[in-house]
Amino acid sequence: MLLQSLKLGAAASLGIQMSRAKTFALKSGFLTELTGNPLRFPPVFNNGGTMTLASRNVVVWPGTTTQVTAINGSYPCPTVRVQRGSVFSANVVNQLSEDATVHWHGLIAPATMDGHPKDPIVPGGSFTYSFPIVQRAGTYFYHAHAHMLTAEQVYKGFAGLFIIDDDNEIPLGLPRGDFDIPLVIQDRRSASQPQFTYSPTMIDVMNGYLGDLVLVNGTPDPYFEVSRTLYRFRLVNGSNARVYKIAFADNHAFHIVATDGGLKDQAVSTTSFLLSPGERVDILMDFSSYTLGQNVVLKSLPFTEGGGTQGLELNILRFDITGNQNSGGVVPASLPSISYYNPSDVTRTRTFILTMSMSGGAMHKINNRSFELNRIDEEVPGNQLEEWRIVNGTDEFHPMHIHGLLFQVYSRNGNTNLPPSDKGWKDTVLVNPSETIRTLVKFQDYNGIYLLHCHNLEHEDDGMMMNFRVSGLTEVGNANEGAPSGFQLHQNYPNPFNPTTTIRFQIPETGFVTLKVHDLLGREVTTLVNEVRPAGSYDEVFNASALASGMYSYELTAGSLSLNRKLLVLK
Ligand code: C2O
Ligand code: CU
Ligand code: CU
Question: Which is the most buried residue in 19, 371, 504, 557, by most CB within 10 A?
Fold first, then answer.
């Protein structure tokens, strides 16, 4: 009879600290004690509620506390989980003694909601972020983005998961519920344990602030008990600078099913992949080939790329195989298709050269410039396919991230045969030393100022970042798609607003026109136009002083035609 894993129920009577659950497993004929901490999961954020940012002492290592930058008292910060098509909002209250912004990484949000460092919430202040969820389901996250404070605030704990679900994906049969597990991976320095001391030297700014131990969902030395079945793991690299080569210690194969921007168009089997800061990859792992009592460790394998400062071999998370439940999930034989951009449709190519030099001031630059908060470095027309070519002129990794859209990687050093973690929708791409990456980008949703930067947060804070401005888009969520020409409803301006904004619309022929504002439950709030009008273009001023803060929609009708858009009242 196989000796199965034993849970030490009588831990207390044996004088063992209860917070350290102990498991015994049969290893080469001996009963070996397994140590560690059960994997933690952050609390779920109540959409529409308040996120209070404050410095707190929380238990990270059992028996002691760590001073962290927490949201609602939690490190990691609470998990946001919303449906595609819903409206997300959070009132963020800054109780820190320094500026803060929240950036919704990978989320397509209006520029004013993007957490740009030029829009700080001052100490004691608050701001309501709100935007409709217009994009694909997937594993996203949010984190600090204040000017030159991003790296330190993230290291102290200011980051959390942002998961978008889509009921249309349920029929695919992916593992769900208790078998759909987010894993936020962050490294910290054992030398300062139990504190998250952040004091980068010049060498740390060059290499990034690297740690030598890994926390998963804020859990040190973590283990997770699994059944002999298929799981979905959503891996988020929430580290400041460390790149992981994700693999199982026994080289067990798994499937990659999603990249930054949600599901791929097929599940791809592999045994390892690189995951750089800011990137997410969802994998499907089947534990049915293990026996009860066995364990397998998720690791970062050693590697030599990245200037030699990366590539430390690390244990990430131990899976203890302890159950026989069936998740009912499958590796889908096919996934919804992705339409890939065609490089021959590119209207313009921009080149971004990444350099590092020791000569005075900021060391990290893009096209020879370091970041300036209010300088616009590129003007980018919306709805045009562009090639953004990123050239790494250094011998270090640079995970490059673009705000305001999801893009596609086209080639690495001319090679279009891409690793599975590159192929699909992306918002961050790891640029290897001396590599040139061609990406295809098309801004389709919002006008305004967004960022391109290295997601090695020390490099970012040291200036490897630039502003670009998207303009010319009149469509939000493709409201005008399919409408006859001459019938148009523009996005209100300004938006968000308080108390007045202007709504522009156009009608192609004389007729009866209505323009009404509804709340998100579909209740009519006000009527702005309700009469016969000649063909032409109109600007209606809408005064919302009687309305509460929040998202509303406005609808234009003329005969059998109608169009609608969303607007945001912010008080
Ligand atoms: Cu995840 Cu601008 O960052
Ligand atoms: Cu981002
Ligand atoms: Cu970098």
Answer: 371
